[in-house]
Specification:
The structure is a homodimer.
Chain A (H helix, E strand, L loop, with lengths): L2 H12 L5 H10 L1 H8 L7 H13 L9 H8 L8 H10 L2 E4 L21 E5 L10 E6 L5 H16 L3 E4 L5 H12 L6 E4 L13 H10 L1 E4 L9 H14 L2 E6 L5 H11 L3 E4 L10 H9 L3 E2 L3 H8 L22 H9 L8 H8 L3 H13 L3 E4 L2 E4 L5
Parallel strand pairs in A: 3-4, 3-7, 4-5, 5-6, 7-8, 8-9
Antiparallel strand pairs in A: 1-2, 2-6, 10-11
């Protein structure tokens, strides 16, 4: 077992997700030396300090994390608890593994997070290649979903999985659970669905979703950036959302209140330049207010079915939806004059050319030529020396 | 009664709405001479012919109307029916009038239609100034509205009228009727609602809306560009839609199928550079498919209440909606570290500073300072030498 892997396993317990100073340290010193510095075995030299300061300045100073000195104090209380070999053994016992960015199995699209790329991923499920961004769609939304949200999520998750997409969500109650369940039902490909957890993957949380998450494990993947035993705190939920967004080409918010964690996921997707879709709903439903907010304020696209989502996921033009055609109207493609003439034709009685000229406001030549065209289209019929409409054509 | 008025009254019977050759003739020769040319009393000189040809070329040649020669033939059959004085007398008897672009009562915003500005308007209702575009909102949609569409239109129409807006619609069944009715109920200002008809205003069409349209007449206005006695043909419905769009600062489509006349009104509004709003609805409702189509394809803005529509109607920034605030979460505004610390505080038992350092992954100084801040906010409480959460704050 290589040092890099063990170091990252330990660092993921030492630092909260998106600990800016910690991520800068890992980037500047590498994971192995970063762990030695973080645990006080090695002192950071002035050159390294400078590099870290520059990295931190580059990502915006006011991250609330302070510099290296504060970071070392922050990490110190957790040093006694470090036991990366034990954590890795736990994962192996659960049929899982740890992956790090240098692994072949690492989802390449996470690199788009830049310095905020996770240190490692703890992964339960089959050992298989996770799909690239263009095959992943995040379906997210409220825990307290309505029957409308449940039904739409069910349709979307099933249809997306049937089209070979991997449905990414957060394993929570409500929209998340409906998304995973529908993807498992519809999945034909290798990884129908991925659950990205805010807490450790040793526990299937929330407990009401235990069976569902076990099924996700068996067919897809359950992953987290925090090590086994970590509680799913509010902070970790918010950071977890960036992973859902980064894994997926499109993040679709199915139902969300005006304030909702799902909007946070959508904002992560926007920041990454990924597409955001929002499902419209009743203006009377508080659970759609967040979706409508995204349509108004954000760059979200209104999506109503899986085909429209697939279109967003595809490199431009590759998966254009079939142009939807309503019931074709008989008057499509008529010239203005012929349309006016058609309107002037009586339904039951017949009308002379002279009368049609006056009613339609058209010259006799236009009327005669138009009657010929409408006759060919089966819209006008000659009868007893006059003309009438051949069939109802409203 | 001046010649200009009589000429325009006659021309509006001679020509269908948006008869390009006719409009060009009126623009080039003036209404009085245009009528004399159209009725064969005066021959157009070569200079006039050239001017008309240029005007027609300027608005795009393929209008399907042909040139002047074709136009003269088109108009000829209707000449015997011309009786503008009788039409004007009819309007006077109905308590109405004819207005022409040079009148003070002419809605100035119709000039944005350019050459497609109507020749005149036949108007039933009180003689009063019609509001400018910035006070007019068009509410349009399907005839076969759902209960959802009815309810949303009722809310919007009433609230817009209460805010002093004039609700413009087409007098049809469904969304149109709900819009007029709600505006009449909510109207406090001078003109709560305007019905723009596709046929003559002598008849209240459809007959099921007769009482409603009479009420619109009594409090607002019922107008049309076609003279009394004109049937509401399909062609005239499509042309009428441009007037609804041109009168209003915003055109809102409340409910529309994938193919719907309401979308035609929205496209007129877009062409005029006016704002278009679309009300979202269930993805399962065929009656919202047209609205969602506008949100996806057109430049329509998602609107869910009257305030959002008022914002679209206002010159930028004047009527910004109040920032909507959801139920404020106690953790709003906390720093990342304090948020993590709050998550680490036990709900029932208490925890020591050392324990909190390990659980939260924070240095002792940060924990002590954070506990002080959380204590001041009433989120943390000291008890028996330890700390706990002061109240539930999920």
């Amino acid at each position: 077992m290589d040092n890099e892997r063990i170091a990252r396993a330990a660092l993921s317990r030492l630092m909260e997700p998106q600990d800016a100073a910690g991520l800068a340290l890992v980037q500047a010193a590498g994971a192995v030396d970063a762990l030695r510095i973080a645990t006080g075995q090695l002192a950071p030299g002035p050159a390294l300090e400078r590099e870290i300061t520059e990295l931190l300045a580059g990502i915006g100073g006011s991250t609330g994390w302070g510099g290296m000195a504060a970071a070392l104090k922050r990490w110190a209380p957790r040093i006694p608890d470090l036991a990366p070999e034990r954590d890795l053994a736990t994962m192996a016992r659960l049929g899982g593994r740890l992956i790090v960015p240098s692994d072949g199995l690492w989802p390449a699209q996470l690199a788009d997070l830049g310095i905020h790329e996770p240190i490692c991923l703890w992964w339960r499920g089959l050992e298989q290649q996770l799909p690239g961004a263009s095959s992943c769609v995040a379906l997210v939304g409220s825990r307290d979903s309505t029957s409308y949200g449940a039904s739409v999520t069910g349709d979307l998750g099933y249809s997306l999985a049937q089209r070979g997409f991997t449905v990414v969500s957060g394993g929570a109650y409500g929209i998340d659970a409906h998304a995973h369940r529908a993807a498992l039902a519809g999945g034909s490909g290798a990884v129908p669905t991925i659950a990205v957890m805010a807490g450790g993957v040793d526990r299937f949380y929330p407990s009401g979703n235990e069976d569902l998450l076990r099924a996700v494990c068996n067919q897809g993947a359950v992953i987290a950036e925090v090590p086994p035993g970590s509680a799913p705190t509010r902070y970790r939920f918010l950071q977890r959302n960036r992973l859902i967004a980064a894994l997926s080409a499109v993040t679709v918010v199915v139902e969300a209140r005006w304030r909702s964690g799902a909007l946070n996921t959508a904002h992560h997707a926007e920041t990454l330049g990924r597409a955001v879709g929002a499902v419209p709903g009743s203006v009377h439903s508080a659970n759609s207010a967040g979706c409508h907010r995204l349509l108004r304020e954000g760059g979200a696209v209104c999506v109503t079915d899986a085909a429209e989502i697939a279109e967003l996921a595809a490199p431009s033009g590759e998966a254009l939806t079939e142009p939807r055609t309503g019931p074709g109207a008989v008057h499509d493609g008529l010239t203005l004059e012929d349309l006016i003439l058609l309107d002037a034709l009586p339904l039951r009685s017949t009308s002379s050319v002279d009368k049609l000229c006056a009613v339609a406001g058209l010259g006799a030549e236009s009327v005669r030529a138009g009657l010929g065209r409408l006759g060919l289209l089966g819209l006008a019929a000659a009868e007893r020396g006059g003309w009438k409409r051949a069939r109802e054509s409203s």
